[in-house]
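Hi, here's the filled form for the chain we discussed.

Project: internal
Contact: R.S.
Residues: 371
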Amino acid sequence: MKNILILFLFISLFNCNKDGNDITTVTDFEEYLQDEMDIQKIPAMSVLIFKEGTILYEHYFGDANLQQNIPLAENHPFLLASISKVITATALLQLYEAGQFSLDDNINDYLPFSVNIPNQSTDITFRMLLTHTSAIADGSAIDDQYYYGEDPAITLRYFLENYLVPGGEFYNAYENFYNFEPGSRYEYSNEGNALIGLLVEEISGMDFNAYCKQHIFTPLAMNNSHWRLDEITGTIVQPYDYTGGQYQPIEHYTFTDYPNGGLRSTGNDLFKFLSAFVQGGISNGYQLLSESTIDAMITPQIPSIDKEVGLHLFLMDPGNNLWGHDGGEQGVSTIMAFNPDTKIGAIILTNQGDAELDEILTESYKMGLKL
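And the returned structure, exactly as it came back:
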């Protein structure tokens, strides 16, 4: 009986540690993170916690490349997956602030082709794209748009026009659209976000990559953030699958609809970006967005449909009021969020596609409250 009691107490203490309930020091926190990496088979993890414009904690665990024994460093960019969407939305909202369009305008008034949902008459608006209510779906055509070891061979405009317009090379009325009226339902849409990237091009008159460099990356000093593989020098964090008890490297890749997930960046660069969202839109002395636009991004836009959807930001953890975005792609899992009241945020980047990061985000935020 005594042995059973001791075993029960041991299990209880172990579970307590796994739940993060006894994380009180940085040492506890790092032990927790290392345990999660071991359990989830994560080769490398970047963790950064900040408050306003100050980094409270920054650490780089594991290896950027297992085969070459390269330890993860601050300047090694991860593929961000869908965290990229926040940068894409920010680019569009900068043009909104410049008076180039209104959120409830018909997007077809700004495109070189028309996008219409089959069997529906309601126009798609910018707000619908920004709240994933456009009824544009992710069809199987996007599965063939991955490029390994190189950048896409076709342009964003060519792909989207041929994906969204009847008669196009990639058009499929059944797969590429949902059967509901735009604005009436929430369905997460990668292609809707890619269309945001194209709208940035059409409205600004600039290539999307060039626009982001000029209006986001350069003024924020995000020197390790790139949409294209051929612009990166040095080590890129290697994506991995963990199968059959082994880490399988995935060749570095891009995809044609890259604005929805193709950015590579670092925790430190993302801090420069995300900290603007808790500092009235300002970071590195640059007004990225206005405070009112950021307020709109973290205000539920479709409460009758979903109370946790803002303008391309989500209420990730209602209990801690964490607004942000996560991402998952082949060989990568990412998450970032901030609390607009405490002005504390966290950014977690990993190179394993099956990693679950929600709890790690919450524990990182709670650690930030103690630092």
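Let me know if anything looks off before we file it.
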